[in-house]
Design a protein that fits this description.
Number of helices: 22
Largest sheet: 3 strands, mixed
Shape: globular
Organism: Acinetobacter nematophilus
Order of helices and strands: HHEEEHHHHHHHHHHHHHHHHHHHH
Radius of gyration: 23 Å
Enzyme class: hydrolase
GO cellular component, one term: membrane
Structural class: mainly alpha
Binding site for Zn(2+): 123, 127, 189
Strand content: under 5%
Helix content: 55-70%
Distance between the termini: 21 Å
Active site: 124, 193 (proton donor)
């Protein structure tokens, strides 16, 4: 999910000029080439979208993408496959060759600040920059990526069905991993800790937070009868914990800390949209006239369709900070829910014009345009983002709706099918995506240019569908 974003409420960034000696891992005999890694990353991206409860929320995606992009700027990685948020209270995160990163909402809600989230991202990014999974291919005799796919499927089973079944698959896969490369895995983890800490410090985040997060996790797991998924795939030893603290102490102090209130807004909003908070908790938090709590409670009522209560909480939040992006987004959604389309337009348009590069605001305005039956305006807005990121599922769904409303266009049905095919493809429904394109191809046979475009895309989809991990 590589997104171009901007926000008026960005975290304070502390740029450090220090250069670090991060080993560059290049190609070599037995290495998977980088193009194949990208293809693997995209394949797993589609599997994750299909099999796991992915959270699609443009505002939340953009908040984490800001952190992710800052850390990536410290690396030599090209365009990553994406960053995916998994709607799961389990503390977990993983990385896949080619630059696919996944973060559970439970990882966010277990953190105390954005620097702790950044430490997990830095660790996972380091796994990819050092090509740990690809380097494991020889040791695994080709089984490394199959094992990784097994971990993902195990997590999907755990979240969808009986937890014991998923746990059994997860434990079985992990046992195979540990059996084949226990010492190598420990070395990889320590290298990812060391390099990830350098990346996060270079991006302006406090390296102490990695050590803090390890200690939080260690305390949390000591009170549980089971290990979180993150522990199964990232074994934590007392040696790693003490090394992290010692290493963090060697960095110069980060004096400019990120905005705590901004993180609290993200954390409480995540609790609501991932279904991890109840109204009693939220009301207790909001009763203190707490801005993050008021926003979270407003969103909670909004998701229940209780627009009057949502508006009441939002009005209180507006008295504290009427200019926050989330205030505009929630207000627009309340008006859309009440079918007050003109009010919805007025609540979003000025904010979107100030920051046209903000994806969440642009997509909300596109939604309003669709309700106003202005498909061309919606299409123009969304195309700017989809052209930069062809895996943007929300973007393709909006474009499908826009194409459907464009009654005057002779290519209307073809365009609906093409956009639907992309939405289906990136949500993992490869078979139906191909069927949609084949149907579009039949309808467009008189239009040579359109037929050629469809043919090109169809061939890529068909080839990638055949690829087995």
């Amino acid at each position: 999910m590589s997104i171009s974003i901007s926000s008026a409420e960005t975290f304070t960034q502390h740029q450090n000029g220090g250069q670090f000696d991060v080993p560059e891992i290049g190609g070599g005999v037995g290495f998977i080439d980088q193009q194949k890694e990208k293809t693997i990353g995209e394949k797993v991206y589609r599997q994750v979208q299909q099999q796991m409860p992915v959270l699609h929320d443009p505002w939340l995606e953009d908040q984490f993408m800001m952190v992710f992009s800052r850390i990536l700027s410290q690396t030599q990685l090209g365009q990553p496959v994406g960053l995916v948020l998994i709607k799961d209270s389990q503390i977990n995160a993983f990385a896949v060759p080619g630059g696919l990163f996944a973060l559970n909402t439970g990882m966010v809600t277990a953190s105390n600040n954005i620097d702790e989230v950044a430490s997990v991202m830095g660790h996972e990014i380091a796994h990819v920059t050092q090509r740990h999974y690809s380097r494991s291919q020889e040791a695994f005799k080709g089984q490394g990526l199959l094992a990784l796919a097994g971990i993902i499927v195990g997590a999907a089973l755990a979240s969808k069905a009986d937890g014991d079944v998923g746990g059994a698959v997860m434990m079985g896969t992990q046992a195979a991993l540990m059996d084949k490369q226990l010492s190598y895995s420990r070395n990889q983890e320590r290298e990812a800790d060391r390099i990830g800490m350098q990346f996060m410090y270079g991006a302006g985040y406090d390296p102490e937070s990695m050590a803090d997060f390890f200690e939080i996790m260690h305390r949390a797991t000591s009170q549980l009868s089971f290990l979180p998924d993150f522990w199964l795939t990232h074994p934590l030893t007392t040696e790693r914990m003490s090394e992290a603290r010692l290493r963090a102490n060697q960095f110069p102090k980060v004096t400019t800390r990120s905005s705590q209130q901004e993180f609290d807004i993200i954390k409480w909003y995540t609790l609501v949209v991932s279904g991890q908070a109840n109204d009693r908790q939220l009301m207790a938090f909001a009763r203190k006239n707490n801005f993050p709590g008021l926003l979270a409670l407003s969103e909670f009522y909004l998701l229940q369709g209780d627009y009057d209560n949502a508006q009441a909480q939002l009005n209180l939040a507006k008295q504290i900070n009427p200019d926050h992006t989330l205030v505009s987004l929630i207000q627009t959604n309340i008006y859309l829910g009440k079918n007050k389309i003109d009010d919805a337009y007025q609540s979003i348009i000025s904010k979107q014009r100030i920051t046209p590069e903000n994806r969440a605001l642009s997509y909300k305005l596109a939604e309003v345009y669709l309700r106003q039956n202005k498909p061309k305006d919606a299409e123009q807005l969304v195309n700017r983002f989809v052209s930069k990121n062809n895996k943007d599922i929300i973007g393709w769904q909006l474009l499908q709706q826009a194409a459907n409303l464009d009654k005057q266009n002779p290519m209307r049905t073809v365009n609906v099918l093409r956009n639907r095919a992309e939405a289906q493809y990136w949500t993992g429904d490869e078979e139906n995506a191909i069927k949609s394109l084949l149907h579009a191809k039949r309808l467009a046979k008189e239009n040579n240019a359109m037929s050629a475009r469809i043919d090109t895309r169809l061939k890529v989809m068909q080839d990638e569908r055949k690829m087995k991990i």
